[in-house]
Each structure stands twice: as structure tokens, then as C-alpha cells.
Known about the structure:
- One of its GO terms (molecular function) is transcription cis-regulatory region binding.
- The protein is an all-alpha fold.
- It has a domain at about 90-220: Tetracycline Repressor, domain 2 (Orthogonal Bundle).
- The chain contains 13 helices and no strands.
- It has helices spanning about 5-10, 25-45, 50-55, 60-65, 70-85, 100-105, 120-130, 135-145, 145-160, 170-185, 185-190, 195, 200-220.
Amino acid sequence: MTDSAQSDDAQTPPRRRGRPVQMDHKTREELVLSTATQMIAERGLEEASVAAIARQVHMSKRTIYTMFDSREALLGACFARIGQRIFRSRDTENLDAPLEERLRHLLTLNEEPTLNEAPLELLRAVITSAPTYPKLACSILESGALALRNHIARELSEAVEKGELALDPADCDSAAEMLMDMCLGNGIHKLLDPERFCSSPELRAIRRDRAITLFLDGARPR
Length: 222
């Protein structure tokens, strides 16, 4: 070995093994939620155990339990996220738009390529597990269908105040639920016979528009 080679080796510090990148609590929680949500959509509710999620995100179960008190709490947060991705909230930038347009916005489900037919499978899994996880079932209802109903009821209530609808303000919640059923159909029917009742986005849009027209024709002042 030459003197110059020895000199170069002496000047080159030994390469240190890098430490894994540290994530803050918010980033870690986001990773767990996004991974768990995708796992639920692709593999189903039963496969989304805390151990499986922990392996997927390269964390310990103990770390996950510092973010979520229980598997039920973690799954509830995941379903809340799924509900936010599928159901829409009010469009605050178009509050002056015609009532038909505002209702059409709320009653259009977001098409989620990563979820595909998952909502139907998830609904089946939730109904099956409801006796075991009653709090989970309630949280899913509140973050999904009930949240959408509340948005629609608020639109109807404000339309009543403006004189656009002739409804008793106390009836806006039940009217919103009825309009949802008219537009979106019965989930139990879809579970029992998905081939017949799982329509395309185009057919769902036709049903939605027809339902809104029929509803408003019967609710507008005479």
C-alpha cells in the first residue's frame, strides 16, 4: 500500500450507521390511521388486528396503544375517516346556490377507487360485529349516515327560514332522513341482493336527481 493510500484512509472517517428517522406523534398517528383504513378496505374488519397493523407500520403494539386506547377506538377512527372520504359535508362556498344544487352536492357520494365495493363489505362486517363492539357501531353511524343527515337537515332548516320550503322546523331531521333513503336506497336490500341493488354511479345520479325533484315538489310552498 502506498503512502498516499494510507494518507487517504487516515483522512476518511469511519461510516456511521444511520439512525431511523423519528416521527412526531401526529405523523405517526396519521401513518397508523391511513394504513389501518387501507387494510380494512382491502382485507376486511377481522383481518385488521392491532398486531397486523403494527407489523405493517413497523411499530410495536404498545406504541399504537399510546395513540388509541383500544382496537375499538382505532377502528372507530378509521371508519370516521372512511365516512369523511365517502360522504360530503356542506359546500360553504356555495351557500347561495339553489337548494337543488346544495342538496345534490350533499347527496353525491365520492367515488373512492381505493375503496371500490368496500363500503358494502364494511357494512356487513359492522352489522356482524355490532353485538361485540356496540360503541364501534354507534360511532360509525354517527360519523357516517347521521353526519350526512345532519348536514341535509341544516340545509332544509335554512331553506325553511328563507321561505323555500313549507316544512315544520321540527320535522327537518326526519325529512332529511327520508330524502337520504329516497336518494341512496336501503342498505339492507343491498346487503341481501348486491347484484340487483348496487347500481353504477350514473344510475345513482339519476335516482338522486329524481328523488330531489320529487321531494322538493312535495315540500315547496303552494
